[in-house]
Write a structure and sequence with these properties.
homohexamer; about 140 residues; alpha+beta; Tetrahydropterin Synthase, Chain A; five-stranded mixed β-sheet; 3 helices; about 30% helix; elongated
Chain lengths: ~140, ~140, ~140, ~140, ~140, ~140
């Protein structure tokens, strides 16, 4: 079994804000991340697929196809967008990096099976900044 | 003469939008950067000071003092903010990286003279993404 | 379960030297790392916490609190210090990156439980240089 | 148990080309990677060894020895070479990053046991570009 | 005047080989870079344009247009290619990074004037590896 | 004229300490950098040479020769050393990054002329940390 990874990126605005709380509590818990006029990041996204290489190609998955899939299904929805306002799959959810990573898993897991006979999704790694990042393995 | 540099960073939201134009023209010119709900970046800021080293310290400028100055006068105003809405020195200006860099020059140039007898501001370099950046030398 | 990481850094001096051995044997085994007048590094430290996100915040752990904890309990003790001479928790131990990572685990593991109901320490990753690093998972 | 890693690098040419297929099918499957006149990369290779630290040195493995081993047994054979034409252990195999990583495992696994009583090979991570990489754990 | 930069990349094979010399002299001068079966690199290319910002857009040059121009005129000709064999503008020239950078200047300088009223080409910076790079300012 | 650069690195210990001052004044001016037991860094050194390419090789300077020169004349003296105690050319000088860069200039400038007919030293850039660096152009 080999683990194959592809990195993509997107730029987005967000704020951390729980609508069930008062503005004061949001500022107390989230600090500057709750700024009502938003802030933003250059997000780096690393998708890892695991499997055995296809003996005819030497590939677990064609990284050009994986890149195309991630761009069509994930980056298109997130790049130059507001994670709280513009993204259908984030509606009603906290716009934290943790939750974004879990939603990306739900989108990509079935679709990767449709472009590769040999690989399956292993992990979603999402950098909010070079110093803050999360990783999700599907459970 | 030695050139001494200090890198700081901030996260902010912005959009590229000329209020004298229609929404259609803004989208035509700025593309996804005109998204009305904003997008954002992790900005990296590099301030370079030039001068001869103080023979007593070996320093052109104390980088701890320079870092403190940049944080107090620039980062505090920009980090976790909206460049179009929240930043006094950007009011009425296009929120492009070029203009932000020029405004940072105006703020820091006189203040650097007040913390160093040996150095003067040489350049402001501002990365909007790892692939897009600007540099300004004051004229 | 999500894995959340925070990167911090410190600069320190050290040497690799086993006091039970002769100077000759130390030089033979450790080479230039045994230089009696020390050498040093910019260390990068990545702390990973695992858990389920708190439904109210979307966080496994508040990364601002995690950063503050790491700085107070670990960086404060190591930054601009000599790992062999100045650091209480390294007294009597080899100042190798492996041992420093294990000691950082011992310090942070209980304290992370005290700042997060949802997360527990997963790993300590310590870069001595961009090309040499270690990772410890607590056992 | 501690995981200790060392990064090395090499520059090489290759193409993705299955000799059992027509030129047309190769271009269809591999796209520009099948360019008959080759293309190339700066590869980064990270070797991770796991084990308990030797109490006398604080080392799982001496990273100077590990670096020397990787250079002698792997980098020497790959650096400034053509992966399809010049490398004995790649003869008759697809020159994909996946296959190169598996072959590196086969070379290093027994030899690491010969330079360390405390460590064994844990993984081979190979970056073809900063955005495309694979990792192999030996099974 | 502001300096605005855009980074692009390409992967290519090449060798350093002067056809006026014997094979022995090529190996003596260029060492492993003269390997007759080629080697290759991930090249990073940074194009810097200088000028005053357009008051209507805040831009010296639209970086989306600059990126599109670099990709169409330069990357398309170099990516996944052999610099000695496949690239029309390198025919009959030494495939050194220095010469590639000078040829890129010749291609881009007039074309940048055609996409920007405010900017002109300032420099071409080309990384062959993260440790080896060249910069050309047009004269 | 082309500018050609080569990056090398070294790890060293140092402290900032003016022996003409009291310990108290050193701590007041240099803060934790004055720690009497030293601290250290992974230094990155970039040497830039300028000139016209040799028409026979396409090189301003052979980067393998430049690398060998930097290692023999500079890195050998600094790597795994104490900048205040172990380095002959730093004796009696403040061990600040500014001064180290100026001393490296003095060593390399004449020697580069001896290995290249086409190039001369343009600048010495020295990173003390990824966020703090200096550059010196010889005057």
């Amino acid at each position: 079994m080999i683990y194959v990874s592809r990195q993509e990126h997107f730029n987005a605005a967000h704020k951390l804000y729980n609508p069930a709380w008062s503005k004061e509590k949001n500022v107390e818990v989230f600090g500057p991340c709750a700024n009502e006029n938003w802030h933003g990041h250059n997000f780096d996204l690393i998708i890892t697929v695991k499997g055995n290489p296809d003996p005819e190609t030497g590939f677990v998955i064609d990284l050009k196809k994986l890149s195309k899939l991630i761009r069509a299904e994930v980056i298109e929805a997130l790049d130059h967008k507001n994670l709280n306002l513009d993204v259908p799959f984030m509606k009603g959810k906290m716009a934290s990096t943790e939750i974004v990573a879990q939603e990306i898993w739900k989108i990509l897991e079935p679709r990767i099976l449709s472009i590769s006979k040999f690989g399956e999704l292993h992990s979603v790694k999402l950098y909010e900044t070079p110093r803050n990042y999360v990783e999700y393995f599907g459970e």
